Amino acid sequence: MAIPVQPLVSVRGTAIALHGDDIDTDRIIPARYLKSLTFDALGDHVFEGDRRIATAAGGAHPFDAPEHATASVLLTAENFGCGSSREHAPQALHRWGIRAIAGVSFGEIFSGNSATIGLPCVLLTPVDAAAARAAVDADPALEVVVDLERSELRAGSLRWPVTINESQRRRFVAGNWDTLTTLSEAGAAISEVAQRLPYLHNWHVAA
Fold first, then answer.
1. In angstroms, rounded to a whole number, what is the distance separating the alpha carbons of residues 76 and 20?
2. Which domain holds residue 66?
3. Are residues 159 and 112 in the same domain?
4. Tens digits of per-residue pLDDT, 1-47?
């Protein structure tokens, strides 16, 4: 039995600010994890290489910082999710706990793969994206809201307009963004139509 998909009107929580452009999918989830048979454990390995480098240098990657342990929003810069078209990248972020991403631009396939699993990627201007990241850097406990109904990003008293593919936005808000679940819920209607398709029955279906 299919689990009903819930409308995704807004995502609310604390945020992680990742600085730097062109963060590719290989950095998000290393290629060696593409052999995993399921996505279940990918969250443990998100940004694994970057996190190890930061630790070796005596620092802490934002995904290791205690103040970000329960963050649900990711703030990025330009061309986030570029590179190879691995669906494991948004899966890893989602299973870590990220429920929305706001940035200047995204790799097209990454954005599409994210939408498929209910992880909206919304767009900000470069100036607004930098201001949002700066606000979170200054106060990691700041509540951040990605509001798909109002098409805006809020951080405390600050707010910025965001854009997203309108078709995606409507599907998120309506709760029919998961096309596979929508298809499975329409099983009876699909079967009824199939019975009327002559090419599925050697052209012997009555008109």
1. 8
2. 10-176
3. yes
4. 444 568 999 999 999 999 999 999 999 999 888 877 778 889 999 99
